[in-house]
Each structure stands twice: as C-alpha cells, then as structure tokens.
Amino acid sequence: MSTNGSQSGFRQVAAADFPTRFGLFRIYGFEGRFGGEIEEAVALEMGDLAGPAPLLLRIHSQCLTGDVFHSLRCDCRAQLELSLAAIAEEGRGLLIYEHQEGRGIGLLNKLRAYQLQDGGADTVEANELLGFKADHRSYELPVEILRHFGVTSVRLLSNNPDKIEALERAGIQVAERVPCIVEPSVTSEIYLRTKKEKMGHLLEGI
Asked: Which residues are known catalytic residues?
C-alpha cells in the first residue's frame, strides 16, 4: 500500500515487520523525486516514535562494500551495527538507510575512486579527480521521512556536521549529537583521518 506525498513526489511504498539479530523492527520503503531524480530509502523503526522527544536517529548512507562485504577500507558497517545496537538498547529509535553509495557518487564511481586511492589519492582527492564534490549527498529524503513520522527533535548518531546542519536547516532540532566512533583498523585509519582533516568530521581521538 502506498501513500501519496508532497509535490516532491514523496511517498511511502511499503511497510513490514522486520526481525533482526538486534531485535524486532518495522521496515518502511520510501521514495521521493528531488532535482528531477527519484531517490529511495528505507527506514527501520523500533518502539513508539510518538513518545518523548528527542528520538535517537541514525541517517546511514548505503555502503555495499562495507555493509555487505565487510570492507575494512571504511568504518561504515561498524557504524551501522553500533547504531542498530544503540537503538535496540533503548528500545526506541529510527534508522534511515539512504541509497547514496560512495557519499552519493554511486557504486561504480566508488570503485573507480578506490582505484585512484590505490594510486595514492585520498578519498577526497579521488572524488574530485572523478569530477565530484568530496561529499555528493543531499538529505531531502531523510527530512521528508522524519516529517512523515512526525519527528521534530532528535539525538543524532553521527560524526558528520553536515547532517546536523541539514536537519536543523529543515526545521528538525538536533538536541544532541551522539558520537558514532569505532576503533580504526590499519586499513581504515587514513580514510578516517582524511574525513576528520578535510571534511570536518568530529572524530575525537583519531
């Protein structure tokens, strides 16, 4: 069952129970048209989102290489699991999983960026050599999802100040930033240091 949305074409397209090793969630599928392109995302809901504010929230960008194949070039899978565990511990929260592979450049361009990194470029330089911004993502769809659920105040699991700015610009209060930091591996340390030094990510201790 789908529900019609705003002029952006935003709509919920599906919902189902979703048992995981972290606990029982409800999974939702959403799509919206932004800038002439259709974007997709899923949301994992646990507990009563209409309960006391602020709600624990993670906005996670798809990382096939990390989330599925356990890549050690990044910390994406570890952040995803940390976030799901934190929501399950509280028994209430929302994780929005965006279809924005490689910080928005797509899977094959991400692999091209890997190749450039193997040649000596860092993750920012590789994106720029391919003609992209260091971070090509937008957050209109997560904002629409939060509005759909009536969420107006969150505790955001994130190290990325751009996410905080995007939510607050859209009228979603970020009452607290909850660090989402995992121990770096030998193969992810340069990647994380680049995010900290060139992209302003809040990675204390790295």
From this structure: 135, 137
What radius of gyration do the chain's Cα atoms show? 17
The β-bridge relationship of strands 23-34 and 55-61 is unpaired
Strand partners, 156: 57, 177
Q: What is the pLDDT of residues 117-151, one digit of tens each?
A: 999 998 889 989 999 987 778 899 999 999 999 99
Residue 118 domain-assigned (yes or no): no
Cα–Cα distance for residue pair 78/35, rounded to 1 Å: 31
**Looking at the domain assignment, is residue 180 inside a domain?**
yes
Domain count for the chain, please give it.
1
Question: Quick check: pTM over 0.90?
Answer: no
